[in-house]
Specification:
Blueprint lengths: L73 E2 L9 E2 L10 E6 L11 E10 L5 E4 L7 E4 L2 H4 L1 H7 L7 E9 L5 E13 L8 E2 L9 E3 L5 E3 L12 E7 L10 E10 L5 E4 H4 L3 E4 L7 H4 L10 E6 L16 E11 L4
Antiparallel strand pairs: 1-2, 3-7, 4-5, 4-6, 4-8, 7-8, 9-12, 10-11, 12-16, 13-14, 13-15, 13-17, 16-17
Length: 338
């Protein structure tokens, strides 16, 4: 299985040793192929969506060149079962294309929704399956905005309902520079909701700053941290949720805010960006303190993580040598198919 990497979208998160303000920005392609951590292919080109690949619910997108790469592609319609994808390889993809294979009967997806899906990636040049949730790869998802996934994907996603199966055609480039033409087939499993922790209040130790929540759930610290910082990561439960328990390999979705222990200054917040953050648990896509300390948590929980430099950014980037304090709301945990 290909090694997952962080999403290729203009977002921040505790993934890059240079620190959140210097995290690499990558432009999404005109499909959602890059908008998942599961494929392990990084879209590192600067070519972005120019609007020429816009697609309607019927699927065809000519990209200005008359291309219809999905015309010769057949996708099985049995929801729940691993999709079969049939075409004559190599499939030439000259334009981005997308269509709904099986309409769902759930809630209609709206702009700004964060959705979770189960997916399969197929190499268009060979017909080989690169990754599949049905074969043990992680789940995936995306926040549905034109900026984050491209106009073509946005136009299709905002006509779909939960439970739909869709297929997309597009391009991707691996970390070593190898180009791929890809087909993505996915079943939309759910919309992430609520977008804040919900559960029973826990009893913090009192060692760390008190957290106050805004009306929308966004956290703030009542005072800067005081005293000696811990030398290994400490986790304190603030709210205990009632959902499924997180485990290794989960595709986790969360809101978070981070502060420096040294002066209490805030350096990052998904709440302020208006977009939850997602990653695959235990795959090295985020700092060690996150990867190892968000396990065995019920979805809906809120925790505080106090992470020393050795388990954060070490001696690299803007946060070199800093002990970090995070408040994290665990919004969703999509499990692998095991």
């Amino acid at each position: 299985m290909l090694r997952p990497v962080p999403w290729c979208r203009a977002r921040y998160g505790p993934t890059d040793p240079k620190g959140p303000h210097l995290i690499r920005r990558r432009t999404l392609l005109t499909t959602a192929l890059a908008a998942t951590a599961a494929i392990g292919l990084a879209a590192c080109t600067d070519e972005g969506t120019d609007g020429s690949g816009a697609s309607d619910a019927g699927g065809a997108s000519d990209g200005g060149g008359g291309g219809d790469p999905l015309a010769g592609v057949t996708v099985s319609e049995e929801l729940g079962a691993e999709p079969t994808v049939e075409f004559t390889a190599p499939l030439e993809i000259t334009a981005a294309d997308a269509k709904v294979v099986v309409p769902g009967d759930g809630e209609t997806i709206a702009e700004g929704d964060t959705i979770i899906w189960r997916h399969k990636y197929v190499d268009a040049s060979t017909g080989k399956t690169l990754q599949s949730w049905w074969q043990g790869a992680p789940a995936g998802g995306v926040q549905v905005t034109a900026e984050s996934i491209g106009q073509a994907a946005f136009d299709v996603f905002t006509t779909m309902a939960v439970g739909s199966r869709f297929v997309m055609a597009g391009w991707q480039q691996s970390a070593d520079g190898q180009a791929y033409s890809l087909l993505q087939v996915a079943d939309v499993d759910r919309i992430v909701s609520p977008l804040r922790a919900e559960g029973e209040p826990a009893e913090p130790s009192g060692t760390f700053p008190t957290v106050t929540l805004a009306e929308n759930g966004a956290p703030s610290l009542d005072a800067p941290p005081e005293g000696e910082a811990p030398t290994s990561t400490v986790r304190e439960d603030l709210i205990v949720g009632t959902g499924d328990t997180t485990r290794a390999g989960d595709y986790l979705t969360m809101h978070y805010t981070g502060w420096k222990w040294s002066d209490g200054s805030q350096f990052d917040s998904s709440w302020e960006r208006g977009a939850p953050f997602s990653f695959v648990q235990g795959e090295g896509g985020v700092i060690q303190g996150w990867d190892e300390n968000l396990l065995d948590l019920p979805v809906g929980s809120q925790v505080m993580l106090v992470i020393p430099p050795a388990e954060a950014y070490r001696d690299q980037g803007e946060l070199a040598g800093e002990t970090l304090l995070f408040v994290i709301d665990v919004l969703d945990a999509a499990h692998t198919n095991d």
